[in-house]
Design goal:
about 400 residues, alpha+beta, D-Amino Acid Oxidase, Chain A, domain 2, eight-stranded mixed sheet, six-stranded mixed sheet, binds flavin-adenine dinucleotide
């Protein structure tokens, strides 16, 4: 029987969407070119930051509140601990985007937070040595989520709810029909009433018709031996540090065991993670993510030396490169495809989408089944860069993990 919805890409957003659709009783066919979770796209590496006082904009906070409700529910349904609260430090000059933006979100939505000067940070969190003049917003509810375990959980739950999930099938295009869509795949054409496209780093090819100049870049997550108790899970908060205007680094304590049976799970998961959020050339996802180079390891160690010195001095355990898919303003693309009534897109997550997966699953299921959602998604309109709407040099540097 023809599916109600085909979901293309069963990584972060597609897995959550397939589950949410199947849970609501829709006939779902999910397709992925690989076998998720895997290390070829945007979701590998053992951990992702979740935080509520969102520096990228107060408009994200209602979506985050819902994600915070849903992560434990999904974990409970799957019998896996997907989210761990660690607290979070947003560090930088007081007028930086990371600190100022988080503070603006906290004030707009009345979110619990503390403002710490550099001395208070050094005293309470000795792993960190901010310079005098730098400050931090501390948020108790920040923490981490486990991406491979989450995607594995979503796919198991989706299949359990009746979704038909097929791996090793690449989608090459789609076109509208009188009563739905026809999807071209390496297994031949497939028809459905609606289509959700969530192809991650392959969006520039599959969503070329949107006309949005998406850029795919490689980012390296480095893992370091835990040097002492100040860097242990339960003691070390997640952190984002704006060290120059518009440039940030971030890190997380060792996430602990994710799902060790998950294909693609990084062997370096036990380490403390640190990564640079900015700075790389565009890359082709078909070229693979590669390995960390000696220069990349050295650059990370140099960055850490003045700010998390004990971490810089400890052993480097390994690295996991992953792919960002950046929109010009670093806000997501979520909504109806402007050129096709029956197609919905979820792309351009610009290096900060993972934490939203459960609420985006709800949103995409709403859209695919009813054409609308009660969640606030105007910020993500896929047609916002339409002819004349994209200012030259509209680079957008607001995003953090
Ligand atoms: C290094 C790094 C660190 C990050 N840190 C954070 C963080 O701390 N917090 C946070 O919230 N976010 C973070 N992110 C961002 C977050 O991980 C991504 O936004 C999110 O995983 C994107 O999900 P996705 O579904 O778009 O892509 P993916 O999870 O990669 O899924 C896309 C899927 O589509 C499939 N696919 C692609 N093309 C086709 C096709 N033609 N046919 C069939 N299947 C196809 C792929 O195989 C893949 O499985 C980070 C990202 C990176 C790279």
């Amino acid at each position: 029987m023809r599916p109600d919805v085909i979901v293309v890409g069963l990584g972060t957003m597609g897995a959550a969407t397939a589950y949410e659709l199947a849970r609501r009783g829709a006939r779902v066919l999910g397709l992925d070119r690989f076998t998720p979770p895997h290390g070829r796209g945007s979701h590998a590496g053992g951990s992702r930051i979740i935080r509520l006082a969102y520096a990228e904009g107060a408009d994200y906070v209602p979506l985050l509140r819902r994600a915070y409700e849903l992560w434990p529910e999904v974990g409970k349904a799957a019998g896996v601990e997907l989210m761990t609260t660690t607290g979070g430090l947003m560090i930088g000059p007081p007028d930086s985007t990371v600190v100022g933006g988080a503070l603006a979100s906290a004030r707009t939505h009345g979110l619990g937070h503390e403002l710490l000067d550099a001395g208070e940070v050094r005293q309470r969190f000795p792993a960190f040595t901010p310079a005098d003049g730098e400050v931090a917003l501390y948020e108790e509810v920040a923490g981490l989520v486990r991406p491979e375990a989450a995607i594995g959980a979503y796919l198991r739950l989706a299949r359990g709810a009746g979704a038909d999930l097929r791996y090793g099938v690449t989608v090459t295009g789609s076109r509208g029909t009188a009563d739905g869509v026809l999807v071209e795949t390496t297994d031949g054409p497939l028809a459905a009433a609606r289509l959700v496209l969530s192809p991650g780093a392959w969006a520039p090819a599959l969503l070329a018709g949107l006309g949005v100049p998406l850029v795919v870049q490689r980012r390296v997550q480095h893992y370091w031996r835990t040097p002492n108790e100040d860097h242990a899970l339960g003691r070390m908060p997640i952190w984002i540090w704006e060290y120059e205007p518009g440039r940030a680094a971030y890190g997380l304590p060792a996430a602990g065991p994710a799902d060790p049976t998950a294909p693609g799970a990084s062997p370096a998961v036990p380490g403390v993670k640190a990564a640079l959020h900015h700075g790389a050339d565009a890359t082709d996802p078909d070229a693979g993510v590669g390995e960390a180079t000696p220069a990349e390891v050295a650059a990370m160690r140099t960055w850490l030396a003045g700010r998390l010195p004990a971490l810089a001095a400890t052993g480097w355990l390994g690295a996991k490169p992953c792919l960002y898919t950046l929109t010009p303003d670093e806000h997501f693309l979520v909504g109806r495809h402007p050129r096709d009534e029956a197609v919905f897109v979820a792309a351009g997550f610009s290096g900060h989408g993972f934490k939203f997966a459960p609420v985006l699953g709800e949103i995409l299921a709403d859209l695919a089944l009813t054409g609308r959602t009660a969640h606030p998604v105007a910020l993500f309109a896929p047609d916002r860069f339409g002819p004349g709407r994209l200012a030259p040099g509209d680079a957008g540097l607001a995003g953090s993990p």
